[in-house]
Prior knowledge:
Layout (H helix, E strand, L loop, with lengths): L11 H11 L5 H37 L6 H48 L4 H6 L2 H43 L1 H48 L1 H6 L3 H54 L11 H42 L11 E7 L5 E3 L4 E6 L2 E4 L4 E8 L8 E8 L4 E6 L5 H8 L7 E6 L2 E2 L5 H6 L1 E4 L8 E2 H5 L8 H11 L2 H5 L8 E2 L8 H15 L3 E5 L7 H14 L4 E5 L11 E6 L2 E6 L1 H7 L2 H7 L6
Parallel strand pairs: 7-14, 7-15, 10-13, 13-14
Antiparallel strand pairs: 1-2, 1-3, 3-4, 5-6, 5-8, 8-9, 11-12, 15-16
Amino acid sequence: xxxxxxxxxxxxxxxxxxxxxxxxxxxxxxxxxxxxxxxxxxxxxxxxxxxxxxxxxxxxxxxxxxxxxxxxxxxxxxxxxxxxxxxxxxxxxxxxxxxxxxxxxxxxxxxxxxxxxxxxxxxxxxxxxxxxxxxxxxxxxxxxxxxxxxxxxxxxxxxxxxxxxxxxxxxxxxxxxxxxxxxxxxxxxxxxxxxxxxxxxxxxxxxxxxxxxxxxxxxxxxxxxxxxxxxxxxxxxxxxxxxxxxxxxxxxxxxxxxxxxxxxxxxxxxxxxxxxxxxxxxxxxxxxxxxxxxxxxxxxxxxxxxxxxxxxxxxxxxxxxxxxxxxxxxxxxxxxxxxxxxxxxxxxxxxxxxxxxxxxxxxxxxxxxxxxxxxxxxxxxxxxxxxxxxxxxxxxxxxxxxxxxxxxxxxxxxxxxxxxxxxxxxxxxxxxxxxxxxxxxxxxxxxxxxxxxxxxxxxxxxxxxxxxxxxxxxxxxxxxxxxxxxxxxxxxxxxxxxxxxxxxxxxxxxxxxxxxxxxxxxxxxxxxxxxxxxxxxxxxxxxxxxxxxxxxxxxxxxxxxxxxxxxxxxxxxxxxxxxxxxxxxxxxxxxxxxxxxxxxxxxxxxxxxxxxxxxxxxxxxxxxx
Length: 625
């Protein structure tokens, strides 16, 4: 299953159950042995009840009637019964132990497939789904699957086997008493259908509400500083209570129906037991109630009472597991809905390689060589010329956010985007690295339509430094090597000296081997940003995109970083997004955007001379949002 792809969404609980069970195919040998052990365990339970009839009819009744009893035969019978129960205990232990292995193996495969598929999803998916809700699929939803696989499914198989074996034993003992039991079974099934159906729909809503609550909690945890700065604690608590109350209502409704089901089933079972006892006694007295095995005896009634409990208990157990299965399938549907999201489309064929062309025209790979585009054996030098022609784009079809964008960036040029928040600056860079695809127009990279370039190759050629830095748990050295795993320690330290980060790193307790967490540990936001800039320098990309890369760095540190970045940018095409206009003065071209349109373009001096929007921004006539 883990290697199988599923087209289309899971349709209902039946489809989800089939997909969950298909994961077990990888463990079919162990699962088959589990089923065999379950059958043995169920059969032992029936045989145990049958022995009651033998003991009553062959030993107890003769003793009460004054007949002779051979105690040696009784001892052999009891020993055989003990041996049979020992086999049953062993079979139960084996199937429960093996099912734990199968269940955890399936969860291993599910999580692996979820995480692997998540890496293929487009950025738009993460923009429209809260991180907490996604985490809930890895935690709560997979935990409900674990309970279903390790407990509910084995219990249902065991109960089903028991029902079959006990039904055959009941028919063998008495047709009439079997009919009495079946009347009560029909009543139980109706109860399960009515009550279980009501609880099931609320369990599905409960899983959705749980994902919503988890998403909100994670969002609030990440935004604690903002909450406290703006004294928003009461509002955050009020919104949480609203979501938590909704979860409470769904859980209360689900468990209300689930909790009344078992008492009803147990009481029906008790009434059934009394009815069978009374009817059985009357049939023995009247010489009626024969079955496949002959006339009904007192021992047969005693055995049948055991069968009654053995037959009713599996129905109760199945009804008890019904809610767990419904909840697990609701979680499975959420998991499969994510797995069924189409991966990021990539039909590009042009690859990015590094090497040199020999005199005979043969390409020779070399990790220190020149960057080139490999277009099916045709090698094109990577210059870094990026052109956007008449580009229109909107995140949703009915709302265009970029209008007729034309940009011509050549190798070694520094192109800056300035404008108010929401003007479309970051959107342009998102289109260059194909986080989103344009609706109209054309984007070329060294004359190649970027839709023809493999996305991994395109993004490998672009070094992106974001305003919101993200470091990973590990050492400084591991974080710097994140963009290029084969980078040597010498290359890492050289890049750090280039950006001015070496002094900061050397001042840390363990230097480059200092361990930080995903939030940067004890580093300030500016220091984290400096590490992120150095990480891009280690990757050594031909083109750089800097989205407010120095926004969190103080003026002194910015001067150090700027010198390193100027060296880093030598010979590279650079796109810079900045609110701090002092950082874009030395740009070759400055684009001023407003509501998705380029309203001014030119060098710093040219735009100052025009005394237009850029002039007013730069001189402080009005500020950027």
